[in-house]
Amino acid sequence: MISASGLSVRLGERDVLDGVDFEVRRGEWVGVIGPNGAGKSTLLKALMGLVRHRGAIMLDSRPAGGLKPRERARLLAYAPQTPALPRDMTVFDYALLGRTPFIPYLGRESRHDREVTESVLDRLDLTALATRRVGELSGGERQRVVLARALAQEAPALLLDEPTTALDLGHQQQVLELVDRLRRTDGLTVVTTLHDLTVAGLYADSLLLLTEGRAAAAGEPARVLTEELVGRHFDAHVKIEPGPDGRPVVHLVRGGP
Amino acid sequence: MVTQAGPSRARPLWVVCALGVLAASMVAALLDGAADISPWQVVLQVVDWLPFTDVDSGLAPVEQGLLFELRLPRVLVAAVVGGLLAVAGAGYQGVFRNPLADPYLLGAAAGAGLAATAAIVLFPAVAGGVPVAAFLGAVGGVFLSYLLGNTAGRDGGTATLVLAGVAVTSFLTAIQTFVQQFKVEELQRIYSWILGDVGGGWDQFWLVLPYAVVSSVLLLLHGRMLDVLSVGDEEATSLGVRASRVRLMVLLAACLATAAAVAVSGLIGFVGIVVPHVVRRIAGGSYRIVLPLSLIGGAAFLVLADLAARTVIAPAELPIGVVTMFVGAPFFVAVLRVTRRTAT
Asked: Treating both helix axes as pointing N-terminal to C-terminal, what angle do B157-180 and B72-96 enclose, rounded to 10 degrees?
């Protein structure tokens, strides 16, 4: 679905990404992990075409460079880490923004666009909030509204930058379960950056570990989340054990590094 | 409870209410004047002017002519100028994602002021020169701000542009003051233009109308796009929108509206902040609502402001710009307080 080779991004004097190769199969959930400043968000932005980059990106077996913005937006939906939420906008209007790639420049939304938006709001239990203003929502509700906008885009792939930041444990689980369910029912491809390693290992089919703009490791969670790799790249002292379902659980060890 | 949820748009009820307010203000403004004509007869005369109606108001031809040649064009110019300033203000606010953006913060007023002053000082004999010069000056002022804002910081976004506007405004105002000192005897004329005037008659109305139609239609068509821009350039791009292209289109239309308004009426401030803000509070934040209702509301606001300007110290007249500033400046502070409180 998504593949990148030799992906490099230079911001000012710094190489934020440096020759990253990266492959996401259709229907797969890939978690991007790495220490702060490793280039996780930049990777998503490069895929989305929001930053200048070198290297080749293929989306749905087509070179991304040849896609118009609207065409790209029909293949990839993106939710940034801190989305700009216009506080006076209603929840319905905000979710409807996801239909933008399908509406002509000066045109207005069709009945189909409204129906898609309504059904997405319904699936995310947001129908009761549809007429509320975005600025009045709680953190968990906002995250769901942002997800609703991305889903209204009906793109085969979702790029979510830290979808669980600022959410408490229960809401984190709620959002991730929701993404997982949608992925299974709709066959969506999902790429998320996640700072919580255990959570990343729990939900993702495969992980990409970035450090200083390079891919340090990639593959199944159990192969990437090892005490050696995490210890070295995060500069942390951790103990990693298999959890109840066999997936790795990362514990901090007191007194290190 | 299931509430009917749907896309925001200007609901017919609101549009009808706004048009009602506008019509009432226009009739009220027609009632006032130096000649003593009974209000009822004015109302009858207005009905008579409407298409497909024929009512005898009982007014003498002289009185009818006075209403038609003096009072009516003044009210209409005030309405068009007010509508343009308000809808342009809403457009700028959408483009800069800043509820305090106003035609006057972006160099339009200063540019027009400088050009009009130069026209008065350098070519005092050319009668129709001031509107044309003001038009070019307004366009030039916004263009300078845009250019400076873009070169100063490509990713600085909206704050950079507003700051560039402030810099351009100061610079052009300094030149304007410098130029006006060459012809001290023209100061009266320069100041009466700078403080605003809608009493130009039918000529001015016909002069401004084509630009008013083109720019308002363009702005009204961009309501949905301005809603998309409100999530920021990056997210708008991820939704497949070329943000810079939308911004340029809306800026051009808003600039045309401002320039046309400034050209016929001089500098009338704060309409572009006050009206869209009130609309947002009452009817909703979507630009599909804010743009059309600001157009109508701005028209009503300026008609009433002109009425106040004529009556407060009658028989003398206040410049209309003074009235809008008197209302607008405290309002500006109030908006600033609200935005700062909710921004954090």
From this structure: 140
Choose among A70, A127, A135: nearest Cβ to B240.
A70
Residue of B nearest to A113 (CA): B7
Q: Does A80 touch chain B (CB under 8 A)?
A: yes
Say which range, A49-53, A100-104, B20-24, B128-132, has the weakest mean pLDDT: B128-132
In this predicted structure, what is the pLDDT of residue B109? 80
**B205-245 per-position pLDDT tens digit:** 988 899 899 999 999 999 999 999 999 888 999 999 998 88
User: Which residue among B227, B231, B240 places its CB closest to the CB of A84?
Assistant: B231
DSSP per position, B98-166: -TT--GGGTTHHHHHHHHHHHHHHH-TT-TTHHHHHHHHHHHHHHHHHHHHHHHH-SS-HHHHHHHHHH
Task: Tell me how close the Cα of B48 comes to any Cα of chain A, in angstroms.
Answer: 39
| A89 closest CB neighbour out of B3, B5, B230 | B230
The answer to whether B230 contacts A48, with C-beta atoms less than 8 Å apart, is: no
Average confidence score pLDDT of chain A = 91
DSSP designation for A90 = B
Omega of the bond leading into B315 within 30 degrees of 0 (cis): yes
Q: Does A68 touch chain B (CB under 8 A)?
A: yes
User: Quick check: A143 pLDDT over 80?
Assistant: yes
pLDDT in tens, A194-208: 999 999 999 999 999
Contact A164, A194 (CB under 8 A): yes
Cβ within 8 Å of B, A 24-63 = 45, 48-50
Is A150 an interface residue toward B (CB < 8 Å)? Answer: no
Q: Kindly provide the ipTM of the predicted complex, given to two decimals.
A: 0.89
Please check whether residue B339 touches A, CB under 8 A.
no
How far apart are the C-alpha atoms of B284 and B26, rounded to whole Å?
26
A97–B239: do the CB atoms touch at under 8 Å?
yes
Cβ atoms of A233 and A35 within 8 Å: the answer is: yes
Structure tokens at A11: 């911001």
User: What is residue B1's predicted lDDT score, i.e. its pLDDT?
Assistant: 38
Within an 8 Å CB–CB cutoff, is residue B98 touching chain A? no
Q: Measure the CA–CA gap between B124 and B9, rounded to whole angstroms.
A: 48
Q: Which amino acid belongs to residue A197?
A: L
> Mind listing the pLDDT tens digit for each residue in A29-57?
999 999 998 999 999 999 998 988 999 99
What average pLDDT does the segment B118-140 reach?
Answer: 79
Q: Cβ–Cβ of A89/B286 closer than 8 Å?
A: yes
B7 closest CB neighbour out of A69, A88, A109:
A109
Contact A69 B240 (CB under 8 A): yes
pLDDT at B255: 84
Residue B3 pLDDT greater than 60, yes or no = no
Q: B12-336 falls under which CATH superfamily?
A: ABC transporter involved in vitamin B12 uptake, BtuC (1.10.3470.10)
CB of A159 within 8 A of CB of A4? no
Cα(A53)–Cα(A33) distance, integer angstroms? 20
B224 touches chain A (CB under 8 A): yes
Is B69 in the A-facing interface, judged by CB distances under 8 Å?
Answer: no
